[in-house]
Design brief:
The chain contains four helices and two strands; from the N terminus they run H-E-H-H-E-H. The chain starts with a helix and ends in a 9-residue tail after the last helix. It has a two-stranded parallel ribbon. The chain has 88 residues and is mainly alpha-helical. The chain has one domain. It is flat, with a radius of gyration of 16 Å.
């Protein structure tokens, strides 16, 4: 996390979360998959996004090529994970 104020807040036990740069894309993808499966309506998606926007989320804007194609790829391979799962 590059934001020292937010890092200090998290270290002091205050609520907040740090997420990777692609987090919002994954959240939206999940919501749209739910809509497509008719598990939720678009109004619920919008309400959920409004709720998310009120949370203390620190999005990492520094996901460089080296981090994504180096560190993250290495961790995914080590733990047998896929980087992102695309809907069918």
């Amino acid at each position: 996390m590059r934001n020292p104020k937010k890092r200090k807040r998290l270290q002091n036990g205050l609520q907040g979360v740090a997420v990777p740069a692609f987090w919002r894309h994954q959240v939206l993808n999940g919501l749209l998959v739910g809509e497509k499966a008719q598990a939720m309506e678009s109004e619920l998606t919008l309400a959920f996004i409004e709720d998310l926007n009120r949370l203390p989320v620190d999005v990492d804007q520094n996901a460089t090529s080296m981090i994504v194609f180096g560190t993250i790829q290495s961790l995914c391979r080590k733990h047998g994970l896929r980087h992102m799962t695309l809907p069918s």
